[in-house]
Amino acid sequence: MIVNGVEMKYDPQQDRWVVVMGHREYGLHCGEYFEIWIGKTSIACRLELGNDWYIIMQGARFNLRTQDTYRVKI
Question: Residue limits of the DUF5348 domain (predicted)?
């Protein structure tokens, strides 16, 4: 079970990623830091936008898939 995790999903109407807390959504911006859950491990990362949205973590870049939902810790 993931503790302190919230859902992060892409909102195509706003063209940005949002986190869902209860019944509200909060938009994220380039340069925001958070932790993303990979399995049972959370890893610190930063959100960025180039041609596509991606995260930078531990010296690596990973594109975010707009059709996927991620668990994050804000």
Answer: 7-74
